[in-house]
Structures are given as structure tokens and as C-alpha cells.
Write a structure and sequence with these properties.
The protein is of the alpha+beta class. It has a single domain (2-86), classed as Arc Repressor Mutant, subunit A (Orthogonal Bundle). Helix content is 52%, strand content 14%. It contains six helices and three strands; from the N terminus they run ααβααββαα. α1 packs antiparallel against α4 (38-50). Residues 1-87 form the HTH arsR-type domain. Keywords: DNA-binding, Transcription, Transcription regulation. This is ArsR family transcriptional regulator.
């Protein structure tokens, strides 16, 4: 999970994931959307691959990236559940009404 959150911590990588939601794109098509060098984009792609958020496939001389949405969803759900979100938390006695306490 830490690899996923490292990947998501950067706005450029989050934007890459947003672009890939619309469908697979080549490394060149993605790089054209950003005002950074090709080596910098390659480093961003490497972080996304390490987090298993994207799948890269060779197509001739191009590399096509695909979003692995299920990995992102699983990581985010795991994070949310680690805080007990979705479970009913016990309310402290001080915040309960007298009627609730009497029950």
C-alpha cells in the first residue's frame, strides 16, 4: 500500500492516472500533456509501475500504458477500512442523551 500512496503523492502522477481513465495512451502521448523532460516522465512511469497502478505494453517502438483501476480501488478501500470507516463507532457517554443512556 505504501507504494500506491507514494505514487499518488505527486500531482503529475495523479494527472497521468486521470488521463488513463479515458483509455490507454502511449508514453509519448502522456508526456506531451506535461511540461517536463522525457527522463522525468520516465521516472514517474516507473513509480506508477512499481505501485502496480499501470500496466505497460510494448507496441512496436511505443510503450502503451493502461490504468489498473482495480489496484487503485483496492488500495484506497484498504486504507479507508484501516481507520474503521464504515463501521459504527461507539459514541462516548458524554455525547449521548439521557434517554439513550437509560436504554
Amino acid at each position: 500500500m505504501s507504494h500506491v500512496f507514494k505514487a499518488l503523492s505527486d500531482p503529475t502522477r495523479r494527472r497521468v492516472l486521470q488521463l488513463l481513465r479515458k483509455g490507454p495512451l502511449s508514453a509519448g502521448e502522456l508526456s506531451d500533456q506535461f511540461d517536463v523532460s522525457k527522463p522525468t516522465m520516465s521516472a514517474h512511469f516507473a513509480v506508477l509501475r512499481e505501485a502496480d497502478l499501470v500496466h505497460a505494453e510494448k507496441a512496436g517502438k511505443s510503450v502503451i500504458y493502461h490504468l489498473k483501476l482495480s489496484v487503485l480501488e483496492e488500495a484506497l478501500l484498504g486504507f479507508v477500512h484501516s481507520f474503521g470507516v464504515g463501521e459504527e463507532a461507539p459514541r462516548p457517554e458524554a455525547s449521548r442523551s439521557k434517554e439513550e443512556i437509560a436504554r
